[in-house]
Write a structure and sequence with these properties.
Blueprint (H helix, E strand, L loop, with lengths): L8 H7 L11 E5 L2 E4 L4 E4 L2 H4 L8 H11 L12 H13 L4 E5 L2 H18 L7 E5 L8 H6 L3 H4 L9 E4 L4 H7 L4 E6 L2 E2 L5 E2 L2 H14 L2 E5 L14 H4 L5 E4 L10 E5 L1 H4 L15 H14 L2 H24 L3 E7 L2 E6 L7 H11 L1 E2 L1 E2 L4 E4 L7 H19 L1
Parallel strand pairs: 3-15, 5-6, 5-7, 7-10, 10-11
Antiparallel strand pairs: 1-2, 2-3, 4-12, 8-9, 11-12, 13-14, 14-17, 16-17
Length: about 400
């Protein structure tokens, strides 16, 4: 058997298309909320693969599900169905407002499907002019051309023009502004209950409630992008449950597979009829491996123990971050919900979020940014208290270096 190819961080620069600028070390192993690099250095993982590894690394029950399914059936073309995907669909339906599910591989694909559904539903209603989509400034919905256009961050879309048309952006949390652009030509409004990449900014309840009313008045579909907020991240199974607002369509991915790629769009019977045979599809979506893993992840997270535990863990983080901020006043605000936490930097530290996370790496903790001015934490939903304390102690050392 051939020896594996030797790789270093330089290998990335030599061989990979440079759409990322990864850290200067390579992680090789993870267990729970700790990971280790090639040199054996340990890190506390407060990033969770960007809100993906909701049960940490190498969770024994999830691992067992993957191994068991791998011994049975990996993949089938979409001319066939399989048992794991049907069981997962029923889990999602039983736990949410939805009647029907479409499975894909990522959040971007789920959002793409939702936007296509909205356009076709309006067209099938007989109004060819009803094709306008309303989205929000600083949103993020994915990297396909359609979803990056719907996202309200020109830095991600402006270099790829001409972009798909018929999309209007308006300020987030500004209901009056939204009312000015939502009209009878609007087929859909797409919104994140908490803007993740846009800075971890929660929607105000009256904003989402007002969007629901505007969509009902104008016959538009309300799409909730819960790619980042879904599957327990906020302490509820889905964030819409915190707001008393039920969308027409919801997209979910990230934590759904606990690290195995899977996404889904869920909706009602009435809307699902729009996408008949041949109107949409995906080769890998809902394959048995992904669905088997996601079924176990979903069942483990959708319990009072885990969901209530998210709220308890938020208290640990808030207490620790508040203490850090008392000693080193670097944050103007700590916001978010559950274990989607954003720490906004004070003006004198503006633009230094990435530098803070790089120093955190040096101290042995992995964190994220949400734009240049916000440090973001999206750890495992079951991270032990000791790992929270140790991770925050390491993070405090990184903050001390910035503030010294």
């Amino acid at each position: 058997m051939e020896q594996p190819i030797a790789v270093t961080r330089q290998s990335f620069d030599d061989w990979m298309i440079p759409v990322y600028a990864p850290a200067d070390f390579i992680l090789v192993r993870g267990e729970g909320s700790q990971v280790w690099d090639q040199q054996g250095k340990s890190y506390i993982d407060f990033a969770g693969g960007i809100a993906v590894n909701a049960l940490g690394h190498a969770h024994p029950q999830v691992l067992a599900a993957l191994v068991e399914q791998a011994g049975k059936l990996w993949h089938l073309g979409n001319g066939y169905t399989n048992e794991p995907v049907l069981r997962l669909a029923k889990q999602l339906i039983d736990a949410t407002f939805a009647d029907k599910v479409f499975f894909c591989n990522s959040g971007a694909e789920a959002n793409e499907a939702a936007l296509k559904l909205a356009r076709k539903y309006a067209l099938d209603s007989g109004n060819r002019e009803k094709n306008q989509i309303v989205a929000f400034n600083n949103a993020f919905h994915g990297r396909t051309l359609f979803t990056v256009s719907a996202g309200g961050q020109p830095k991600y879309s402006q270099d790829f023009a001409p972009l798909p048309g018929g999309i209007t952006h308006t300020p987030f949390n500004d209901l009056a502004a939204a009312a000015q652009v939502i009209n009878d030509r609007t087929c859909a409004v797409i919104v994140e209950p908490i803007q993740g990449e846009g800075g971890v900014v929660p929607a105000q309840p009256q904003f989402l409630q007002g969007l629901r009313e505007l969509c009902d008045r104008h016959g538009a579909l309300l799409i909730f992008d819960e790619v980042q907020t879904g599957v327990g991240r906020t302490g509820s199974l889905y964030a819409y449950m915190n707001y008393g607002v039920v969308p027409d369509v919801l997209t979910t991915a990230k934590a759904l597979g606990g690290g195995f790629p899977i996404g889904a769009m869920i909706t009602t019977d009435k809307l699902a009829k729009t996408l008949g045979v041949g109107t949409h599809g995906t080769t890998y979506g809902g394959n048995p491996l992904a669905a088997a893993v996601a079924g176990v992840v979903f069942s483990l997270i959708n319990t009072p123990e885990v969901l209530d535990g998210v709220k308890q863990r938020l208290e640990w983080f808030i207490a620790g971050l508040t203490q850090i901020n008392l000693q080193y006043p670097i944050f103007s605000e700590i916001r978010g919900a559950g274990l989607l936490i954003g720490c906004a930097l004070n003006p004198e530290y503006a633009g230094r979020a990435k530098q803070i996370t790089q120093l955190a790496n040096e101290e042995g903790v992995i964190a994220l940014i949400a734009g240049p001015d916000v440090v973001r934490f999206t750890p495992s939903l079951i991270i032990p208290e000791q790992d929270v304390k140790e991770g925050l102690a390491r993070f405090a050392r990184a903050v001390a270096r910035i503030c010294s």
